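Hypothesis: this fold can be encoded by more than one sequence.
Test: take the structure tokens below, design a sequence, compare later.
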């Protein structure tokens, strides 16, 4: 097959003699290295036909539809083999082992440019196969340089043999990419290694030293470590391709300085030409400018998402639930999980498998601590069906040990039905199979984060649902932050709108959720509430009306968590956050952790909202202030009121039950204070 293509150098000569055309990398390499293999010539010759139409020299990015689409030639993987563009050993793995036949849009639109050695930045929706889109050309380009590596079992890699580096923002994503790459090269002699943060540094280094490396998948910090340390013997003087996956994330303030440092440690353009490939589902305009300064002139910007199109998938309906207060969000989440789990079980649809995103690690910890206690509980569904112990909760965030992170990731990947409680560590790139629901607790900080989180469902043509459980405080901010996204209001979750400060009649299904949550909260250590309170405050810094924020958070602490007083905040933190002087803050001095005598001095009486704003949505008084004491509940130091004291009604099987929130009823438990 490859042999049949060796009559093409004629077109190659034409290419090189036309000064107006940019030479493909293989040709440029030929000029410097006359000994380039015949196979590489053959491949270059074939793809040249596809390149003629668009190879005009330009210092601007070419944003137009790429020629692969104009020519309409390559849409199936087998065509890549038939045309001699990708080695049969690799294509056979894709078609036989992966079972893929058709290429996705981003794969077929980027393949020619990437194979030609051009710089490419590509934007395509989540779950559309971008990983394969960059892996295929980089593998082939290594094989073009050394065709002998196409033979399985024939490996001669050294630790300084790295030809391609793929950088990913998270360890989990790097491991996932490496896993895919290893499957892809399983019929060749190519060696894939990882260099990711965490505990396995020594093992990774040993592997690279012992087995060598052609393709290195890395996280920025560890890559820098490895390249900086000359004692490792690991270097990349032969590097031909650098891939930035989730490019816009790698270009933000957190990572960019590190990426620049890494770039300086790689071969410079005057020593060796290096191709750069960047992929992401989101490429905000400010990133395009940075791309220009990083890529070679004439780079291709291949957009598989139209400007007038939402960056999320049409087949993933998106809903927002406005919870009456912060304290209603967890009940709403649990109601959604119980309902959707039961509905799917009854209808025989794919099992309920959800990811719930929180804006902080502390909130993940608190949710896990609470919900994990409910794993074996019985809930009543809306139709009186009883579901017992089905919901399995798994935590994932960046402060867990690497071992725990790996365990959580694996467990959730393999689970038929489970709920992953996660920070944004899993928001980008992670390919968990068959996720049916993505739930976001509160607005994410950025529109891009929302898009990537939603992208964990509805992947590779599957169906899914996106839910955002926000509070009334966020209602006005939503259209600004998540502009142009097809999000519809949903009012179907009863517990989202229950007034938890009052006694009232509730459907049994909702009552059982609230009771279970209240009981679970009793065994949560107070420190976890404190951490979550801090983190929550931090993630709402954008809100101008800080007084309402404090009151709303105190309502969450009192009616949601059952606290007897607001969780304490250090004085320095209060000042730093611009909260000094606000009512309802429990200020703690740094004097060994105990609450100072003036800890509650700031807790004022009810006041009207001094900052104006929408009165119907903003909390205007402090739930812990003294004039609420008759309604107030929580675990206080004077006997511990039960904020969710069940006091009447219903009995087994009744559809409605009376609940009082924050009332001073029987069923008391000894309370605790911070
Ligand atoms: N041509 C194809 N045909 C069918 N499935 C494919 C094809 N290419 C990739 N896939 C599958 O689609 C899923 C999503 O692919 P991948 O993880 O590469 O998406 P992505 O575009 O990188 O997503 P994200 O933006 O979230 O990073 C994976 O399970 C992958 O195996």
């Amino acid at each position: 097959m490859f042999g049949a293509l060796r009559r093409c150098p004629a077109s190659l000569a034409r290419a090189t003699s036309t000064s107006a055309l940019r030479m493909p990398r293989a040709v440029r390499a030929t000029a410097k290295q006359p000994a380039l293999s015949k196979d590489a010539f053959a491949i270059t010759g074939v793809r040249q036909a596809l390149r003629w139409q668009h190879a005009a020299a330009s210092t601007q990015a070419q944003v137009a539809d790429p020629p692969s689409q104009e020519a309409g030639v390559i849409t199936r993987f087998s065509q890549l083999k038939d045309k001699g563009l990708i080695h049969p050993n690799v294509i056979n793995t894709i078609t036989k082992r992966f079972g893929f036949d058709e290429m996705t849009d981003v794969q077929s639109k980027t393949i020619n440019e990437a194979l030609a050695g051009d710089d490419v930045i590509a934007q395509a929706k989540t779950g559309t196969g971008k990983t394969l889109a960059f892996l295929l050309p980089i593998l082939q380009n290594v094989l073009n340089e050394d065709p002998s590596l196409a033979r399985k079992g024939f490996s001669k890699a050294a630790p300084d043999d790295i030809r391609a580096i793929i950088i990913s923002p998270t360890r989990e994503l790097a491991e996932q990419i490496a896993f895919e790459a290893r499957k892809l090269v399983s019929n060749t002699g190519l060696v894939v290694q990882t260099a990711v943060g965490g505990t396995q540094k020594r093992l990774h280094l040993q592997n690279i030293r012992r087995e060598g490396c052609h393709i290195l998948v890395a996280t920025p910090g560890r890559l820098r470590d490895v390249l900086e340390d000359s004692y490792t013997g690991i270097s990349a003087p032969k590097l031909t391709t650098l891939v930035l996956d989730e490019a816009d994330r790698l270009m933000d303030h957190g990572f960019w300085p590190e990426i620049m440092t890494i770039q300086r440690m790689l071969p410079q353009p005057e020593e060796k030409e290096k191709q750069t490939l960047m992929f992401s589902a989101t490429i905000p305009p400010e990133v395009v400018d940075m791309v220009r300064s990083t890529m070679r002139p004439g780079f291709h910007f291949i957009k598989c998402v139209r400007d007038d199109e939402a960056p999320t998938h049409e087949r993933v309906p998106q809903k927002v639930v406005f919870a009456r207060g912060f304290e209603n969000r967890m009940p709403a989440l649990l109601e959604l999980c119980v309902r959707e789990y039961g509905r799917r079980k009854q209808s025989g649809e794919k099992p309920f498998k959800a990811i719930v995103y929180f804006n902080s690690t502390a909130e993940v910890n608190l949710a896990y601590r609470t919900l994990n206690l409910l794993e074996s509980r019985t809930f009543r569904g809306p139709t009186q069906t009883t579901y017992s112990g089905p919901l399995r909760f798994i935590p994932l965030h960046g402060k867990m040990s690497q071992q725990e992170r790996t365990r959580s990731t694996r467990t959730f990947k393999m689970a038929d039905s489970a709920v992953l409680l996660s920070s944004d560590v899993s928001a980008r790139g992670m390919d968990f199979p068959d996720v049916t629901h993505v739930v976001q607790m509160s607005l994410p900080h950025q529109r891009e984060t929302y898009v990537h989180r939603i992208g964990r469902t509805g992947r590779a043509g599957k169906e899914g649902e996106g839910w955002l459980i926000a509070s009334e405080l966020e209602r006005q901010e939503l259209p600004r932050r998540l502009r142009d996204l097809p999000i519809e209001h949903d009012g179907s979750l009863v517990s989202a709108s229950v007034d938890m400060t009052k006694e009232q009649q509730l459907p049994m299904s909702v009552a059982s959720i609230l009771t279970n949550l209240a009981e679970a909260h009793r065994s949560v250590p107070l420190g976890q509430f404190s951490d979550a309170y801090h983190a929550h405050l931090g993630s709402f810094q954008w809100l101008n009306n800080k007084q309402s924020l404090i009151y709303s958070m105190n309502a969450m602490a009192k009616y949601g968590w059952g606290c007897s007083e607001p969780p304490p905040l250090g004085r320095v933190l209060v000042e730093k956050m611009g909260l000094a002087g606000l009512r309802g803050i429990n200020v703690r001095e740094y004097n060994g952790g105990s609450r100072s005598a003036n800890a509650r001095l700031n807790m004022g009486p009810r006041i009207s909202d001094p900052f104006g704003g929408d009165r119907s949505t903003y909390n205007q008084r402090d739930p812990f202030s003294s004039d609420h004491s008759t309604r107030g509940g929580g675990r206080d130091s004077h006997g511990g009121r039960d904020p969710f004291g069940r006091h009447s009604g219903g009995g087994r099987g009744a559809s409605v039950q009376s609940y009082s929130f924050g009332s001073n009823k029987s069923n008391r438990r000894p309370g605790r204070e911070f």
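The CA atoms of residues 374 and 516 lie 7 Å apart. The pocket of adenosine-5'-triphosphate is lined by residues 100, 102-104, 107, 124, 126-132, 281, 429, 431, 455, 459-460 (CB under 6 Å).
Hypothesis status: open.
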